[in-house]
Amino acid sequence: xxxxxxxxxxxxxxxxxxxxxxxxxxxxxxxxxxxxxxxxxxxxxxxxxxxxxxxxxxxxxxxxxxxxxxxxxxxxxxxxxxxxxxxxx
Length: 89
Hints:
Helix content: 55-70%
Number of domains: 1
Order of helices and strands: HEHHEEH
Oligomer: single chain
Distance between the termini: 26 Å
CATH class: Mainly Alpha
Strand content: 5-15%
């Protein structure tokens, strides 16, 4: 079963949030790591990173991107989601 777009984006944000909280001094996640964890092809990953970057939830490094992390806005949104009773915030 292939995960849908929302599941992929939610998983990406959860991975990046865990990395940010677990290692705030080095919050960047490599492209290869994301491939390995999510198990999606390059086009799917690139499309979803581009979307989340457009929503200002991510910061990317490199062209094409090599590493990605949560933006300040992304961190604020996910902090609010984690402390809310509404998981779809």
